[in-house]
Write a structure and sequence with these properties.
Helices cover 75% and strands 0% of the residues. It is mainly alpha-helical. The longest helix is centred in the N-terminal third of the chain and has 25 residues, at 2-26.
Length: 183
Amino acid sequence: MRRSDASRSAILAAARERFAADGYERATIRAIAKDARIDPSMVMRYFGSKDGLFAAAVTVDLRMADLSQVSDAEAGRAVVDHFLDLWEANEELTAVLRVAVTNEAGAERVRAIFREQVVPLAARVCPDPEQVVTRAGLCAAQLLGIALTRYVVRLAPVVALTREEITAWLGPTVQRYLTAPSP
């Protein structure tokens, strides 16, 4: 068991470095196995696929905005600004989104990030504790929609928007999801 733990750790360390250096598309199982000094079949044995390896190797800390420093009325804009900062500086998030739409392990990774990081953020400002998860889900839908169209699909009208325009359009929507009375 110790040897398999060491092999698994070596693979994950090599995968993190390779995904960071080459991105998801260019990183290969063979290159990761070579970096880990292990046979490529062992990578597949432990993780099943490149997608499964990516989901296990990539840890995403959204470093959620500290809303205690922002008025409740500005929470939506603060979340959108923070979100744009993260997506524009971190290609791993784009890779995670790509994997999530095609692979169950990647989708579960996104769901875990939602549960562990987005829901607690919404809980800080949501007026109704019974609606926190719903409101967080609506915020995530908006933010992931922008991410998908801007950073993955690269839909021209969305890519052409400035950060200020995205914040102006999306901030009030996220704000409404976080704090407005229930419909």
